[in-house]
Amino acid sequence: MENQNKNKMQYSFNCVVLAAGKGTRMKSSLPKVIHKVAGIPLISHVISTVSQLSPEKTVIVVAPGMESVQQAAGAVSPSSKFIIQNQQLGTGHALKVTESELKGYAGKLLILYGDIPLITPNTLQRLLETAQSADIAVLGMRMENPYGYGRMIVDSRGQLEEIIEERDATPEQRAINLCNSGVMAVSGRYLFPLLEKLTVNNNAGEYYLTDIIALADDMGLHSHVVEAEAAELSGINTREQLAEAENIMQWRLRKEAMASGVTMIDPASVFLRMDTKIAPDVIIHPSVVFGAGVTVESGVEIRSFSHIEGAYIKSGAIIGPFARLRTGSVIGVNAHVGNFVELKNTKLGDGAKANHLSYVGDAQVGAGANIGAGTITCNYDGVNKHKTTIGEKAFIGSNTSLVAPVSIGAGAVIGAGSVITQDVPDGNLALERSQQIIKQRKPK
Ligand code: UD1
Ligand code: MG
């Protein structure tokens, strides 16, 4: 992704992202732009996309108490400037409060909303290109159901004359399906004078950013529409739209993975994160979920119903069905993790196997070791976590509890059903269970 604009013209611009809205339609205690798509907040998607075009400055408008938004955006672009909009008086007002940061800048100002996570760098690049020869360029989209969006009124020469909000539109204007995405590039020298002229004479009683188009037209300035896919530009205002965006993003990620050589038997049931890294010739069976921070090397097979996060899986390993890999799992070359096995903070050596019904946490397992069915590392004593070490080619019999801290030597064998509390030297057999008793029944 980072290199896709390599051969293209680099435009210099400043960027403003509006994210102070309450997002009441989400019915959430979280700020809207903190809700996630493919595992990362909406605002992080927008900031990371725009960062690929190297803005000179990024200004983000937030409301008081939105520390979580500042944190999420700052993690993606540490040089971002945050401006607090104390009262949410509308998108036009949100831009007004950035004046202290941006006044006097005569280049292009790229304005985005924090609730459009699907926008791509290519589309922003197209907008900036058009903006070079227009005073204002606005990204528009054709919507089958334009309800809720600002409608774009374009004259016979293709010039954008006005944007009318849903609430203020006549029935004829509502029939227009060319909708405002909210993304625009405006010449810095005109923006603040135009914002000065905004009023709240509309049905929402807000300062609409979109009103600057008609005001610019009155001044003889030129505004152009750049059209792009609705799938990229639609804004998230409700939980239903959040789910639609997730679906679009998942298909993007699945298609990218398949195009790079990954087999997905049923892609629709595989869920990826923005940061999932899967090498070519990996086979993913139906119903697999990836959490954050997963890397999968070539030749790995991931079978159905596995849940994988924070894991590095080396080549040729077989995972699942029904495996759970948690943070800090490193699976060695050709190792196997089978059904109902949970691994956490555990290194499983090359060729090692944990095939059935086990919990292995805070452990180091040597190459070729075999963890029998029902093995549990008892890593937590109620206060602290402790480590278990299992040597190369050790054999842990079924239904064994390894009470950490404990170390099992290379080639050691643990008898089934043992509760192991002491270290076992290399090559030795350890057994811990009471002797079996057989009592003959007296014949009646
Ligand atoms: C806005 C546009 C509409 C467009 C649609 C596209 C206006 C008046 N309307 O409507 O033409 O079709 O987006 O998705 O601009 N925000 C602030 N401070 C405020 C108000 C909003 O920072 O005082 C931020 C929000 O956090 C959000 C963005 O601005 O990221 C847009 O606000 P939202 O309420 O979602 O506007 P829409 O009703 O969707
Ligand atoms: Mg919106």
Rounded mean pLDDT score: 96
Radius of gyration of CA atoms, rounded to a whole number: 29 Å
> What is the count of DSSP helices, taking H or I runs of 4+ residues?
10
Give the end-to-end Cα distance, rounded to a whole number of Å.
82 Å
Estimated helix fraction: 10-25%
User: What structural class do helix, strand and pairing data support?
Assistant: alpha/beta
Small molecules held by this entry: uridine-diphosphate-N-acetylglucosamine, magnesium ion
Fraction of residues in β-strands? 25-35%
Form type: elongated
Largest sheet: 14 strands, parallel
State the low-pLDDT regions, or none. Answer: none
Number of strands: 36
Question: Describe it for me?
Answer:
The chain has 444 residues and is of the alpha/beta class. It is 19% helix and 29% strand. Strands 12, 13, 15, 16, 18, 19, 21, 22, 24, 26, 28, 31, 34 and 36 form a 14-stranded parallel β-sheet that branches. The protein is elongated, with a radius of gyration of 29 Å. The model has no long low-confidence stretch (mean pLDDT 96). Residues 18-21, 61, 85, 88-91, 93-94, 113-115, 149-150, 163, 165, 179-182, 208-210, 235, 237 line the site of uridine-diphosphate-N-acetylglucosamine.
Which features characterize this protein?
binds magnesium ion; 8-stranded parallel β-sheet; 10 helices; 36 strands
